[in-house]
Amino acid sequence: MGARVIDGKAFAADVRGRVAEHVARLKEEHGIVPGLAVVLVGEDPASQVYVRSKGKMTKEVGMASFEHRLDASVSEAELLELVGRLNADPAVHGILVQLPLPKHMSESNVITAIDPDKDVDGFHIFNVGRLATGQKAMVPCTPLGCLMLLRDLHGSLSGMDAVVIGRSNIVGKPMAQLLLGDSCTVTVAHSRTKDLADVVRRADLVVAAVGRAEMVPGDWIKPGATVIDVGINRVERDGKNVLVGDVDYASCAEVAGAITPVPGGVGPMTIACLLANTLTACCRSNGLPEPEGLTA
């Protein structure tokens, strides 16, 4: 395997370290403590694990962590009331409502209720529009993490041919906007794309975010290209459940110049960027300089 393995776990630890240093300076110089509020509705096991991890890492970097756990039977009106209180709380700089929500709630209504300047998930329509028009926005965490990894690897991305496989609102579309912002030539490919293999083969950068296990084989990859695998899929192999990405790692690693593994690639960057977004939101709300290298 000739590809350089992009160590997202190590890079995420570095991001958290830089966040912690900036948080310490905010406390010392301004008496400000960034605060992140996470709201979990119901008892989805994966969401519970994720929320625990977020709370732990929030505290580790010196931020204030506010966790709100609500029963699955809570009404949408009660959830919206909580969001309103968090919007008005000056100690809370970032608000994240863990998705998915129970079926009797409208995710759109809840996301829209969050103050866009505290929307550290970057899902609010105001932030979507700001990102699309090149304005200062809160950027979704996973695409931001991918961008950080790419910038660290390549420096400038200007002029590179990028293909994003997947058009979700959470990853695909914002990833394309970020790459456009860094002057890439961007193609968004998806399930209806004709000659998908040929489209991918011309790319210097491939970001796979389709949610289909090992969909992208090595013979789709341009020799020397960088492959960012956002997918996290559970498959049964040799009687065990294992995690794999959206690309066939073994065959792609033989062709690519650099590739993210699954696990240990993009995944750790998501929470690290959530913390970075909370820090950014805190600095913006207090009229202070934003941390360098932690924003888009």
Automatic annotation (TrEMBL):
<keyword id="KW-0378">Hydrolase</keyword>
<dbReference type="InterPro" id="IPR020631">
    <property type="entry name" value="THF_DH/CycHdrlase_NAD-bd_dom"/>
</dbReference>
<dbReference type="InterPro" id="IPR000672">
    <property type="entry name" value="THF_DH/CycHdrlase"/>
</dbReference>
<feature type="binding site">
    <location>
        <position position="232"/>
    </location>
    <ligand>
        <name>NADP(+)</name>
    </ligand>
</feature>
<dbReference type="GO" id="GO:0004477">
    <property type="term" value="F:methenyltetrahydrofolate cyclohydrolase activity"/>
</dbReference>
<dbReference type="GO" id="GO:0004488">
    <property type="term" value="F:methylenetetrahydrofolate dehydrogenase (NADP+) activity"/>
</dbReference>
<feature type="domain" description="Tetrahydrofolate dehydrogenase/cyclohydrolase NAD(P)-binding">
    <location>
        <begin position="140"/>
        <end position="284"/>
    </location>
</feature>
<comment type="function">
    <text>Catalyzes the oxidation of 5,10-methylenetetrahydrofolate to 5,10-methenyltetrahydrofolate and then the hydrolysis of 5,10-methenyltetrahydrofolate to 10-formyltetrahydrofolate.</text>
</comment>
<comment type="similarity">
    <text>Belongs to the tetrahydrofolate dehydrogenase/cyclohydrolase family.</text>
</comment>
<keyword id="KW-0554">One-carbon metabolism</keyword>
<keyword id="KW-0486">Methionine biosynthesis</keyword>
<comment type="subunit">
    <text>Homodimer.</text>
</comment>
<keyword id="KW-0560">Oxidoreductase</keyword>
<dbReference type="GO" id="GO:0035999">
    <property type="term" value="P:tetrahydrofolate interconversion"/>
</dbReference>
<dbReference type="InterPro" id="IPR036291">
    <property type="entry name" value="NAD(P)-bd_dom_sf"/>
</dbReference>
<dbReference type="InterPro" id="IPR020867">
    <property type="entry name" value="THF_DH/CycHdrlase_CS"/>
</dbReference>
<keyword id="KW-0511">Multifunctional enzyme</keyword>
<dbReference type="GO" id="GO:0006164">
    <property type="term" value="P:purine nucleotide biosynthetic process"/>
</dbReference>
<dbReference type="InterPro" id="IPR020630">
    <property type="entry name" value="THF_DH/CycHdrlase_cat_dom"/>
</dbReference>
<dbReference type="InterPro" id="IPR046346">
    <property type="entry name" value="Aminoacid_DH-like_N_sf"/>
</dbReference>
<dbReference type="GO" id="GO:0009086">
    <property type="term" value="P:methionine biosynthetic process"/>
</dbReference>
<dbReference type="Pfam" id="PF02882">
    <property type="entry name" value="THF_DHG_CYH_C"/>
</dbReference>
<keyword id="KW-0028">Amino-acid biosynthesis</keyword>
<comment type="pathway">
    <text>One-carbon metabolism; tetrahydrofolate interconversion.</text>
</comment>
<feature type="domain" description="Tetrahydrofolate dehydrogenase/cyclohydrolase catalytic">
    <location>
        <begin position="6"/>
        <end position="121"/>
    </location>
</feature>
<keyword id="KW-0658">Purine biosynthesis</keyword>
<protein>
    <recommendedName>
        <fullName>Bifunctional protein FolD</fullName>
        <ecNumber>1.5.1.5</ecNumber>
        <ecNumber>3.5.4.9</ecNumber>
    </recommendedName>
</protein>
<feature type="binding site">
    <location>
        <begin position="166"/>
        <end position="168"/>
    </location>
    <ligand>
        <name>NADP(+)</name>
    </ligand>
</feature>
<dbReference type="GO" id="GO:0005829">
    <property type="term" value="C:cytosol"/>
</dbReference>
<keyword id="KW-0521">NADP</keyword>
<keyword id="KW-0368">Histidine biosynthesis</keyword>
<dbReference type="Pfam" id="PF00763">
    <property type="entry name" value="THF_DHG_CYH"/>
</dbReference>
<dbReference type="GO" id="GO:0000105">
    <property type="term" value="P:L-histidine biosynthetic process"/>
</dbReference>
